[in-house]
Amino acid sequence: xxxxxxxxxxxxxxxxxxxxxxxxxxxxxxxxxxxxxxxxxxxxxxxxxxxxxxxxxxxxxxxxxxxxxxxxxxxxxxxxxxxxxxxxxxxxxxxxxxxxxxxxxxxxxxxxxxxxxxxxxxxxxxxxxxxxxxxxxxxxxxxxxxxxxxxxxxx
Length: 155
Known about the structure:
With 155 residues, the protein is mainly α. The chain has a single domain, classed as Ferritin, core subunit, four-helix bundle (Ferritin, Up-down Bundle). The chain has helices at 3-34, 41-69, 81-95, 99-121, 127-154.
């Protein structure tokens, strides 16, 4: 696989994870605004802050990989397609104070991240890059499964 294709693949992951990072940051802020008297809002705020920090660390690691390969790492996300809808729906769910809807939207967004990571792993990337992507994918799957478990408890 050529350097440009590796860089493009990693930059695609940077964009989707940066979208996730920003969405979790905004969701934590919205949960804080909506927390007055709403049961469970504070635990969602803490969870979203934790996930935002994790996603920020993943973005930085991917950017480092791109730079090590000799490419130019993306510094922002994209608000296109399914990711865009996920973040808009997540914000509306948070503002609507519907815990089950919040968790459902988070799970959908995490599923999109998993899909993009699976696509990246299907490519013939260098072993060190594959190892990092696989590690990130494991983390994202754990978080997605956590959202599903929380959602199922609420439902």
